[in-house]
Amino acid sequence: MPCDVFSPCGFGHSIRSTNVPRLQAKIIAGGEHNPLTRRGQDLIKEAGIVYVPDFAVNAAGLIAGATGQSAEEAAERVYQNVSRIFAEAARTGKPTHVVARALALARIRLIGSLGARGSEL
Fold it and tell me: Cα separation of 82 and 53, whole Å?
């Protein structure tokens, strides 16, 4: 069935590589952790389907809890983050899920370095 967004919310790797040609979605974005295998990620890129990982679209609760922001403010941050992912993917030609992981890892490293500096004080 054609759709704009396909939102898998089951168990990991629920989208099999053999099913990718049957997908009629523009975007895959949902609550499931790792709905695609690495091969599946390559195939959706070839099919012109955008994949936004769960950690990018489901971060509002974490953001609200860590910052004290309201649900609306946290949702706006998710929107800004996903917009940044799309812009960086367009600029570099890299798949959105690759950009999302790189940005997440950079943020994790930054947070880790702040903790290391704090322990030295």
Answer: 10
Distances 27 to 51, 69, 76, 81, 118 between C-alpha atoms, Å: 6, 28, 19, 16, 40
CA distance 39 to 31: 20
Task: For residues 76 and 105, give the distance between their C-alpha atoms in angstroms, rounded to a whole number.
Answer: 21
Q: Is the pTM of this model over 0.85?
A: no
CATH of 3-120, one of 3.30.2290.10, 1.25.40.10, 3.30.450.20, 3.40.50.720: 3.40.50.720
Give residue-wise pLDDT tens across range 75-94. Answer: 999 999 999 999 999 999 99
Type of residue numbered 41: Q
Which residue has 């053999």 as its token pair?
18
- Looking at the DSSP bridge assignments, the partners of residue 52 are 29
> What are the strands, taking DSSP E only, across 24-103?
25-29, 50-52
Give 119's contacts (C-beta < 8 A, 6+ positions apart).
Answer: none
